[in-house]
Amino acid sequence: MTARTLPLVLCLTLIASAAQARPRPGGHITGQSFEANKTFGLGLELGAPTGLNGKYFLSADRAIDFGLGGLYSYYNRSGFHLYADYMFHPISLASTSSFELPLYVGLGGRLWSFKDDRVDPADDATAIGFRVPVGISLDFNNAPVDIFVQLVPVLDFFSGYRDHDIYLDVDASFGVRYWFN
Q1: How far apart are the C-alpha atoms of 53 and 177, rounded to whole Å?
Q2: Is 159 exposed, middle or buried (0-12, 13-18, 19+ CB in 10 A)?
């Protein structure tokens, strides 16, 4: 499957699927704690990084978020990006019968290996980093879909990179996930 057909297959799957989201046990009260009505979702993430994204709820407000990117580009460098975060959803910023808008925060790690897309192979490197994602998710109650946007401060420790040994950066991304259950 090529990179161009993957989004098409995902969109067709979303359109052809019947809504499978379950009612939320806590009702719809803004400012209250968030309670997930889904368990496992996969989707696409655009930004830093760009790639596949997944989320698995361990409990009503705790989840593991993970991603795999191969299209990440940073100052003419591209490569492999793998991350996993432990997420906490402390509050729902907005709540209606159609959707919840939970705020989430997390702590996780990433592995990022990249090569210089220009001529200089001295810019090829690998980094291990700590991530602190902060974001919101538009979590639909009547459809197995959510949309998220997040900012992620990252502290990277580089190996083989001439410009930095340690670097603090802020990644930003948004995405959509289809929930299987």
Answers
A1: 7
A2: exposed
| CA dist., res. 14 & res. 44, Å (int) | 12
Residue range 5-179 in CATH 2.40.160.20: yes
pLDDT per residue as tens digits for the range 116-156: 777 666 667 889 999 999 999 999 999 999 999 999 999 99
Query: What is the Cα Rg of the chain in Å?
Result: 18
Global model pTM greater than 0.85? no
- Nearest-angstrom CA–CA distance, 94 and 180: 24
For the chain, the structural domain boundaries read 5-179
